[in-house]
Amino acid sequence: MTPPPQAPAYLHANALVLGEFGLLLRGPPGAGKSGLTLRLVADWRVRGAFAALVGDDRVALEASHGRLIARPHPSIRGMIEARGLGVVRVDHEPACVLRAVIDLLALEESPKRYPDEGESRTELSGVTLPRMFENAASVGAVIRIGAYIQNVATN
Questions:
Q1: pTM for the predicted model, two decimal places
Q2: Which of 3, 59, 88, 102 could hold 55 in an S-S bridge, CB 3.0 to 4.6 Å?
Q3: pLDDT by residue (tens digit) across 10-33?
């Protein structure tokens, strides 16, 4: 007898697609996940590249054939919190294959200049993904994440 399907477990995170690259942003409340998501999507679109939100605040993760799939919570699909505006509707994708994780630091923290090799990967739902640390409030966050994606995508 097959066990009944389990309800998805939701992670406090954001998922987005930049080009063909699925990205998960994790961090403590108030770390700037939503604002950084909006900035990254806008930056990629200005450059003529595809970019879209998958999920804001609550994201379901599912391991499938060695890949990690992210989906939004159904009750907030296509919505993102924009500080000063409230919750707004945006273009979104129903799912993405995650290729990397960005762990956001508390606003008063900065990433290490040279991260430890052991911190460069993380495991979620049995799938290991490349990881970087960033401060969402940093002026160069969008540029560094873009460079990171190029580096991970070519390796």
A1: 0.92
A2: 59
A3: 999 999 999 999 999 999 888 999
